[in-house]
Amino acid sequence: MADPNSVASNVSRAVLALVDWRSSPDDRKAAVSFLESFKAGDVRILASASFALVKKDSPSEIRLQAFKLLQHLVRQRWEELSPEEKIKFANISVELMSASANSSEQWAIKSQTAALVAEIVRREGLNLWQQLLPSLVSLASNGPIQTELVAMMLRWLPEDITVHNEDLEGDRRRLLLRALTQSLPDILPLLYTLLESHFGAAMSEVKSQRFDLAKQHATAVTTILNAINSYAEWAPLSDLSNHKIILGCSILLSYPDFRLHACEFFKLVSPRKRPTDASAVEFDAAMRSVFEILMNVSREFLNRSASNADESEYQFAEHICESMVSLGSTNLQCIAGDDSALALYLQLMFGFFQHFKFVLHHQSLSFWLALMREISLKPKVHVHSGENSAASSVSFGSSPGVDIEKKRLLSFIHDDICSAILETSFVRLIKKEKLLPGTVVSLGAMELWSDDFEGKGDFGQHRSKLLELVRFVSANKPLIAGAKVAERVISIIKNPLLPTQDLAVIESMHLALDNVVNGVFGGLNGYLGGSSEVHMAVCTNFEGLLQHLLALKWTEPAFIEELGHYLESLGLFLKYSPNGVGSVISKLFELLTSLPFAVKDPSNSARHARLQICTSFIRIAKTADISILPHMKGIADMMGSLQTEGRLLRAEHNILGEAFIVMASVAGAQQQNEVLAWLLEPLSRQWVQMDWQNNYLSEPSGLARLCMETSMMWSIFHTVTFFEKAIKRSGFKKSHLNSQSGPTESPTLHPMASHLSWMLPPLLKLLRAIHSLWSPSVVQALPMKIKVAMTMSDTEMVSLLGSKSSKNVLTFVDGPQVDAEPNENDIRNWLKGARDSSYNILGLATTVGETFYRCLDAQSAAAALMENIQSMDFRHIRQLVHAVIIPLVKSCPLDLWEIWLEKFLQPLFLHSQQALSISWSSLLHEGRAKVPDSLSISVEDLKIEVMEEKLLRDLTREICTLFSVIASPMLNTGIPSLEQLGHVSRIDLSSLKELSSFSQSSMVSFLFKHKSLVLPVLQTCLEVFRWTDGEATSKVSSFCSSIILLSISTTNVELREFVCKDLFSAIINSLSLESNAIISSDLVGLCRDIFAYLSDRDPAPRQVLLSLPRIKSQDLAAFEEALTKTLSPKEQKQHMKSLLVLATDNMLKALATQKSVNAITNVTVRPRSKPQSQVEDGDTLGLDAIF
């Protein structure tokens, strides 16, 4: 056996080589190799040498590394020691901890000694804890430094419970939790005693002005609080109460030096879920005390904050408010029966919401939103099962008592609170940076959202929460909401400073008005709750507001645009008050005609405002419903008049036509067909003409000529975009569809079905011509202007870089007034817009029904889309797949798979596999992706590299999304799931089928029927597992799961061999990529499925595992035996993960990444999570016990 002292010297030299910046790369590599071999060598040498190195005469970096080696031994190799050796190891470790308890010792060393003892106790369990407890108590009684060490150790004990560790799933984790729970009667009293003792000592030393000693005791108190907080998340709340932990932490809330750590305790306790067993009564009592404590602290703060609070007070208040939000979001039932306590709690939360400090308002917003949401939602019946049925997300039953309790809770939210919530929300909808300085001053001390705030998310998220709260308050208090929003809007629009007043204020209130109207007239509780008096009063408020809006004579385009928004916000009101519809329509046309009619407006403001006014017609058509039907003829006449006079641009006509289609969808099938015929017939006459098709679409040079002819170019563009709007907006509302079709009638034909036969053939020709421009033989002969237009726009490049840019509205040249030849930007916009709309039309047309597939020739359609795919940019292929191919695959009738799918998928799969493979190879080996997309040469190289990689990843993910769609259950009904197959021992091999028998009920099987389709797909799948893109791997894994299921269910040898060898190896190798850490569980699951179901039918899975570098035959045998002892897929997956870690010496980074998160680290305060995320993620108000 090697001499431990000699080995220790070698370890010491290796560590010094690693930390010495002067060491050569070879020396560092040799040091790492030596340390790894040392960790894997004789366990007793490892222990002896490491203990020798932690002595004080060693340099600190060597001592720290030695402690980590000892912790590694305890975690990974503890079972190799005998019982006697374990006891000796533990005693030496405790002695080390005791020896480090002096002021001269480094804090890092103290932390590591405490962590080592905690690791040993976790491994050995309750028996060792009982043996060590007396010595730990004795050590802690020696002074504050010793107490700090004991507290550190107690803080580390439950880490494997508080920090998720997949390696501890199952029995071992449950045993650890049980052992620690049984130890709580020893741990919690000890912690309280130490807390009380050292807090008292700290106060005493301060009075005696012995500040050094006071500081030591204060440090001990802080460390004890950290230890307490590690139990706050999981120890029974009754134990925390009975052993005075809650009391002790509540006392410390009054002391600035300790209150933030004490706040952390209450933050962790507040969201605890109510148990369902007999301990619920004790839980409620303890949680009521927590409510009392926090409400008293909140009241004291709110009473003094207006006068003499400083920043530390506000920081403390933010912590308290966060805990108050958690309490109300999870445990409001604990005080729901006490009217005075509930009223006080709501009043305090309202105080936080109304507070001038933004951080307090922001914290409390989550509570009010969750509360009003749950009061407003209609009751739903939720069936819970198992241990998660306690107080998960709020679920109201369907019994009459539910509504009674909701009304009772709502009664505490009286009218004054609701009014103030609305007023506060209206003001805080504004962002500080958007206001003029004078407006900011007029708001006084109230803080608005600012970009300077850190950790508060995005302003858009904050504003959406406020608007949702406004909507829910309006649904429950319609009269108050209507009066408040009308009062606020009228005060703004009648301000004598207009039109110089802040546009931001006006813009924020149109959003508020929109949500109030939605809450009042589209409320979840039924329109206005059924009270005719309230109906009349609310309508009176909105009628008064409407008259003020109609009387406005704003002339600035930006203000006119906002006025259009205000009018469209009243759409739902107009649904119930149809008398105002005519006035609103007249006003919108008045606003439209008041704006200057200019084809190219240098500022773009008037152009944008005109388009926005036209868009308001769509919004009103959608919300006013049948109230707008009597006005359709008037709108049509006005459109015709403006068009005749040349005062309506083509884009504006398209938007108004879109609004007409929306109106017609309410009127029913006949009216909609008539409207579509009225709108489409003039377009069809030009569209089907062969002259323009032959002139511009028959050859690439024709399309180049088209790009030089402004009038024709934009005429075609607007025709195409209106086709898109027509097919997107047409259809029937369910209510009207149900009223027109009896139970025995066949489904009504889609309104656009009869138009596809003349619309789509020229559209495919147009796309074919656009695609051909990128062909190498064509692009060389194109004019320079078109070549420049084919490059990516600045907006697209900014989007690829992930930068924020101002909204870019495409400005299209319109009408015959412009004779100027289009510039590069015009052509670029035209190409992009025509391509985008054409793709969308085709994708939407595939969902209309079988009409699409019957009216087109599959070969011609495939040629138009796929003929030039090898010349297409990655961004265009991604768009084609997303908008056309995926809908085509989803909607293609089963009997047409053979005719359609192969023609489209074969060239796509073949090219994408080759192109992606080349580009990824370039990225991984040369550091830069090779993509065909043309980027501006003015962009710096680094940004170009980022954009190229983004284009590559986007296309990769889209192709993989297509694979996942092909593998979706709805397209593979014939493949049985693992649940249907049952355990591997129950599979009858005689029941397996031929692969071809699945091709009529499985698209995955259909691919395997066609070698030209499946081979590039399988090759792409294998390569994706080697690429560093976790999202793409995740999508491919779902496709591979279907392949695995298919191989289990069929007799096909070729498929089984691919799965058992190639796919199994690729999945294991993919776990070596850290980018796959987030989906490592799914990948390990696939490995488990392959081995569990196919290893008895094929030797390849065993051969693959035995080829791993560190595996031994006995390891594989033990793994197989473990699989046979459990039927749980989860436990089998854990066995597979453990084997892979063992067989690769923990070199699979996707698995090692998870483990490193759970490694013991130095003591730090836990990062504070945001309470609103709990509300958003489903941990909504815990009112189950009330209802």
TrEMBL record:
<dbReference type="InterPro" id="IPR011989">
    <property type="entry name" value="ARM-like"/>
</dbReference>
<feature type="domain" description="Exportin-1/Importin-beta-like">
    <location>
        <begin position="106"/>
        <end position="265"/>
    </location>
</feature>
<dbReference type="InterPro" id="IPR016024">
    <property type="entry name" value="ARM-type_fold"/>
</dbReference>
<dbReference type="Pfam" id="PF08389">
    <property type="entry name" value="Xpo1"/>
</dbReference>
<dbReference type="GO" id="GO:0003723">
    <property type="term" value="F:RNA binding"/>
</dbReference>
<protein>
    <recommendedName>
        <fullName>Protein HASTY 1</fullName>
    </recommendedName>
</protein>
<dbReference type="GO" id="GO:0005049">
    <property type="term" value="F:nuclear export signal receptor activity"/>
</dbReference>
<dbReference type="InterPro" id="IPR045065">
    <property type="entry name" value="XPO1/5"/>
</dbReference>
<dbReference type="GO" id="GO:0042565">
    <property type="term" value="C:RNA nuclear export complex"/>
</dbReference>
<dbReference type="GO" id="GO:0005634">
    <property type="term" value="C:nucleus"/>
</dbReference>
<dbReference type="InterPro" id="IPR013598">
    <property type="entry name" value="Exportin-1/Importin-b-like"/>
</dbReference>
<dbReference type="InterPro" id="IPR045478">
    <property type="entry name" value="Exportin-5_C"/>
</dbReference>
<dbReference type="GO" id="GO:0005737">
    <property type="term" value="C:cytoplasm"/>
</dbReference>
<dbReference type="Pfam" id="PF19273">
    <property type="entry name" value="Exportin-5"/>
</dbReference>
<dbReference type="GO" id="GO:0006405">
    <property type="term" value="P:RNA export from nucleus"/>
</dbReference>
<dbReference type="GO" id="GO:0006611">
    <property type="term" value="P:protein export from nucleus"/>
</dbReference>
<feature type="domain" description="Exportin-5 C-terminal">
    <location>
        <begin position="311"/>
        <end position="1155"/>
    </location>
</feature>
